[in-house]
Amino acid sequence: MNDLSLQLEELLGPKGSKPPPIAKLRTTHHELARLLALGLKDVDISRITGYSQSRICILKNDPLFKELLAHYMGMRDSVVVDVGARMQHLSVTALEIMQERLLDDPDGVTMKDLQSVAELTLDRTGYGKTTNVNVDSRVTVRTLDEIKAIVEKEHRGRVLPRGQGVEAGDTVREAEFHPQIEVSPGGEGEGN
Predict the structure, then answer these.
(1) pLDDT tens-digit profile of 125-144?
(2) In this prediction, what percent of the chain has a pLDDT beyond 70?
């Protein structure tokens, strides 16, 4: 055996030996167990926790870690059932109270409240508001000659100062205010 093999054997134990069992559960073990209980894949858990996939596999076979994982699996199931049951109970109770108020004192319920209840219940049963969106996606195909003609036509226009009259057929473009460019009475600016 070379020196590297001896050092590895000292650190990891002899080849084929099992890693020692977990002596103390740490926060990282709890996080790993929670993620496994949620159903994440080992590769994703490896990215999140920094544990290698092989280490995760080893931990899943450790007796103490198996107990921890079973604990989190049980908690997950009971919490999900509990929250779902509570939400269902709450919604049924709310519906009963609304129905009682409607039957006991219909004049005490405002039109706005009635509209809200109607919108909510209709929406949840598939009869809610709908919106139609029409999209017109026509595409104008132009040839290169047509595009050149359009550009040439655009450039034939004159830049006129405000207030100066326009002759029929002229393209009008208002002159922007640039202190360094003066527009002459003839309509042509410097640099044109």
Answers:
(1) 888 888 888 888 888 888 99
(2) 68
Token match 């993620």: residue? 35
Segments making up each domain of the chain, as ranges: 85-124
Whether residue 114 contacts residue 106, with contact meaning beta carbons closer than 8 Å, is answered with no
Alpha-carbon separation of residue 15 from 1, 12, 23, 60 (angstroms): 13, 8, 22, 20
Q: Is the pTM of this model over 0.70?
A: no
Q: Is 20 left (phi over 0), alpha (psi -120 to 50) or beta?
A: beta
- The Cα–Cα gap between 25 and 34 comes to 13
Q: Give 191's contacts (C-beta < 8 A, 6+ positions apart).
A: 181
Distance, CA of 165 to CA of 186 (rounded, Å): 11
